[in-house]
């Protein structure tokens, strides 16, 4: 993956045009049978978990907001494959996939969605506010763009402590227009902080398409004026994400400062559960699903190479469904937090 030139505006525009058109990718990582199976299982877990969360929401078990990650699974799964113990992850409110990819339990996430005691924030945070110190997951943030400054702070802490951990700050195409993103870019570049900025460009911010909201739609180049390199990545292909992640992690660990990865991805569901999705056609969604689905791509490769039969993959699906069903049962039967919990975990 060669760095894209950042010198000329016209070359940037040309590059953006080509890669946006068809997800024409950069490097593709070589995946062994084990890699493919692992990616398949992890992406499927997120997909099935989100489908179940959607159902529970519809049944009235989940209050407040709930933003599903369906369609974007390859991004977190591919990135996570490049990390080592101690690397940190932070994101916005579309966060269930990130938590599962970090190894947080399906039970803990689902029970938080239903506001139960066994939830990762003891049932007091809900969908947008979950954390795990143990898994180095720092939320779960409802304020668009806030996680970018916080993720930069995590990188600062790593630098200050002299370890070689990196932090991953995920944010959306809409969040990329927030002012604090650029204040963070400036500091990260100035102090060469080990942070990977991952723009999950799913083409919409609520109901507003990227082209309606952004003057410069090639988000990989948003750090150009700070000298931060950036790449566009096929965020629907877990191998492309892994390849980009490997290079980005190496860049940060070796002290070269921040880097931006723009993931070209797509969300199949509405912005949140109450989105009628009138801003795009059903055909657009269907086309993405049938031509670019991240899970179907892995499945097709596994079958084509003879690495797994349809039956073996059905068995994986069953195991994943069992984990999700167990989490849903737990999330409905676990008690709500005690009223006294209203007075704990708060700063006065
Ligand atoms: C500071 C702030 N402004 C506005 C909102 C309302 N809001 C919530 S999500 C959202 C869109 C963000 O879209 P994007 O960054 O593309 O992320 P996506 O939902 O596509 O994952 C907006 C404007 C908010 N939560 N915080
Ligand atoms: Mg978006």
Report what the structure shows.
- With 348 residues, this protein is of the alpha/beta class.
- 45% of the residues lie in helices and 9% in strands.
- The radius of gyration is 20 Å and the shape is globular.
- Mean pLDDT is 93; it is low at 1-24.
- Residues 94, 142-144, 172-175, 200, 202, 204-206, 271 line the site of thiamine diphosphate.
- Globally, the shape reads globular
- Can you tell me the CATH class? Alpha Beta
Spans of 5+ residues with little confidence (pLDDT < 50)?
1-24
Number of helices: 12
CATH-defined superfamily: Thiamin diphosphate (ThDP)-binding fold, Pyr/PP domains
Strand residue percentage: 5-15%
Q: What structural class do you assign from the helix and strand content?
A: alpha/beta
Task: Work out the radius of gyration.
Answer: 20 Å
| Named CATH topology | Rossmann fold
The main sheet orders its strands as 1-2-3-7-6
**Nearest-integer average pLDDT:** 93
Enzyme class: oxidoreductase
InterPro entries: DH_E1, PDH_E1_Alpha_Subunit, Pyrv_DH_E1_asu_subgrp-y, THDP-binding
EC number: 1.2.4.1
Pfam families: E1_dh
Topology (elements, then pairings):
Elements: H1 9-22, H2 33-58, H3 73-80, E1 88-90, H4 96-101, H5 106-113, H6 146-161, E2 167-172, H7 179-190, E3 195-201, E4 204-205, E5 208-209, H8 210-213, E6 230-234, H9 238-253, E7 259-264, H10 282-292, H11 294-304, H12 310-333
Parallel strand pairs: 1-2, 2-3, 3-7, 6-7
Antiparallel strand pairs: 4-5
The structure holds thiamine diphosphate and magnesium ion (MG).
The site of thiamine diphosphate has 14 residues, from strand 4.
EC number: 1.2.4.1
InterPro entries: DH_E1, PDH_E1_Alpha_Subunit, Pyrv_DH_E1_asu_subgrp-y, THDP-binding
Catalytic activity: N(6)-[(R)-lipoyl]-L-lysyl-[protein] + pyruvate + H(+) = N(6)-[(R)-S(8)-acetyldihydrolipoyl]-L-lysyl-[protein] + CO2
């Amino acid at each position: 993956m060669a760095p894209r030139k950042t010198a000329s505006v016209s070359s940037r525009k040309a590059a953006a045009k080509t890669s946006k058109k068809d997800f024409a990718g950069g490097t593709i990582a070589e995946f062994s049978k084990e890699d493919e199976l692992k990616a398949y299982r992890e992406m499927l877990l997120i997909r099935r978990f989100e489908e179940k969360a959607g159902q529970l929401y519809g049944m009235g078990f989940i209050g407040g907001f709930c933003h599903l990650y369906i369609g974007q699974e390859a991004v977190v799964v591919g990135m996570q494959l490049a990390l080592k113990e101690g690397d940190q992850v932070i994101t916005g409110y579309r966060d269930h996939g990130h938590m599962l990819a970090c190894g947080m339990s399906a039970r803990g996430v689902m029970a938080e969605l239903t506001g139960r005691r066994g939830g990762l924030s003891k049932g007091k945070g809900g969908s947008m506010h979950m954390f795990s110190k143990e898994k180095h997951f720092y939320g779960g943030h409802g304020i668009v763009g806030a996680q970018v400054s916080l993720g930069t702070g995590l990188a600062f802490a790593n630098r200050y402590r002299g370890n070689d951990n990196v932090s991953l700050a995920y944010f959306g195409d809409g969040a990329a227009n927030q002012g604090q993103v650029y204040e963070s870019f400036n500091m990260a570049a100035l102090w060469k902080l080990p942070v990977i900025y991952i723009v999950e460009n799913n083409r919409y911010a609520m109901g507003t398409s990227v082209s309606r909201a952004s003057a410069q739609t090639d988000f990989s180049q948003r750090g150009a004026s700070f000298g931060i390199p950036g790449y566009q990545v096929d965020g629907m292909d877990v191998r492309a994400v892994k390849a980009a992640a490997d290079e980005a992690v190496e860049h940060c660990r070796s002290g070269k400062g921040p880097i931006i990865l723009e993931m070209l991805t797509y969300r199949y569901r509405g912005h949140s559960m109450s989105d009628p999705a009138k801003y795009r056609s059903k055909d657009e969604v269907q086309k993405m699903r049938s031509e670019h689905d991240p899970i179907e791509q892995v499945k097709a490769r596994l079958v084509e190479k003879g690495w797994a039969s349809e039956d073996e993959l059905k068995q994986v699906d069953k195991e994943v469904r069992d984990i999700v069903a167990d989490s849903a049962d737990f999330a409905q039967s676990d008690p709500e937090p005690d009223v006294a919990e209203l007075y704990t975990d708060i700063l006065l």
